[in-house]
Structure formats: structure tokens, C-alpha cells
Amino acid sequence: MTRPTPVPPDMYPITHRRPRDLSDRVALGTVKALRFVADRFFAGRYGHRAVVLETVAAVPGMVGGLLQHLKALRHIRDDQGWIRELLEEADNERMHLMTFVKVAQPSMVERGIIMLTQAVFYNFYFFLYLFAPKTAHRMVAYFEEEAVISYTHYLADIDSGRHPNPPAPEIAISYWNLPADATLRDVVLAVRADEAGHRDRNHEFADHLLGSAEPAADQRVESSSGAGRTHAPGSDRDAA
Ligand SMILES: [Fe+2]
Ligand SMILES: [Fe+2]
Q1: Could you list the residue range(s) of the whole structural domain that residue 114 is in?
Q2: How far does the centroid of ligand 1 lie from the alpha carbon of residue 52, in Å?
Q3: Is residue 185 part of a domain?
Q4: pTM of this prediction?
Q5: Exposure check for the chain: N or C terminus, fewer CB within 10 A?
Q6: Ligand in nearest proximity to the CA of 151
Q7: pLDDT tens digits along 10-25
Q8: Residue 48 lies in a domain
Q9: Distance from the alpha carbon of residue 60 to the mean position of ligand 2, in angstroms
């Protein structure tokens, strides 16, 4: 079996935006706490992790799109393209879900978690976005920072042979226009690119709402835990 070609480490670097104020710190703290719980629950079960977390990831874009739509109606003004972009983000996340459900079927417990989490998270995020949209976008951006890290781990495990690399599901091949012989690795690469785009865009939305003329620069993250690894172990370079 041939080993897949390593991904250029700079392609979708793991980046982190330092919190600038208290609300950013609250958003980051919440995301880190949820990541801790997810890491304990899913461990290395990447497919299951993706299925459950993508059901959550598909909520904020829809809520943000709805509330921006209502705001544009209330103020009778142009939305500057935000509504369409947020709804597209939600749709893109739903396609991640439809893809990974072909890779891993959620257990009964996970289906229960999905139902409960949606009930809680939808309401939580709705009111967060209604009263603190900047924090809501920053929180999504921090979620997406973690998603890029998780999918980078997923890639590293596929590259090392710790995780199988079956053919890509048909739905993924047509959605991302992948070659007919694409594998799971190609899918994870495509999804990671999407998450990196959501991360950067949501930081920009938050900066815009902050009214910041000079957005803070993203920091590339060097990880000693292998979080930045996007290539087969044995090489001496990790992704930044
Ligand atoms: Fe996603
Ligand atoms: Fe995302």
C-alpha cells in the first residue's frame, strides 16, 4: 500500500487569535471547556466525533443568518452579503455531517447527545447572537480553530496508518468535486480547508462588529503535542 503524499504544512496552518477583551476570553474559555469534554468522550474516534460535532457546527450560521435577516428588515438596509454567507456556512457544515455519517454511524447514546445538545445549543446561541453578536462570531471562530486542530490530528492518524483510509463517500466526491479514486484523506483535507475558512471569516465578522480598524493578527501555532502535524510521522517538520 502506498503512503499518501504528505500535505504541505503551510497549506492550512493552525492559527489562533489572542482574545482582546473579556468577552473574547469568555468565548475562548467556553470553547476550551467544551473541547476538553469532547476529547474525553470521543478520544480517537474521529468519525463519531465529526458526526456529533458537525450537528452542532451547522447551527450558528443558520441562527446568525436568520438574525441578520431580521435586522436587515428592521433597519431597512443592505446586509452586505452576511445573510447569504452565514446560510452557506450552515449548509456547508450540514454537508460535512452528511459526509461523515457515511464514515461512522452514531450510536444510540450519541443520537441522544445530538438531540439534547441541539435543544440547548440552539437556544443558547440564539440569545447570545441576539444580545452579543460579536461574542457569538468570536465563539464560532474559536470553535473553528479547534476544528482545524482536530481534523489535522485526523489527517496525521490516517497518514501514520493508525486510522484506515477507505474510498471517499460518493456524496463527498460530488460535493467537493474530488477525483473518482479519492479517499477519506482527501475528504478530511477538504473539510479542514472549509473549517479554516469559517475560522478566518468568523474572526473577521467579530472584528467588524467590534468596529476595529486594525484587526489583531492570527498567530500560527506550533504544537508540541502533534496538533500541527499534517504529514506522516518520521518527517521532522510539523505544520505551524
Ligand atoms: Fe464542519
Ligand atoms: Fe466549520
Answers
A1: 17-220
A2: 10
A3: yes
A4: 0.86
A5: N
A6: 1
A7: 577 899 999 999 999 9
A8: yes
A9: 10
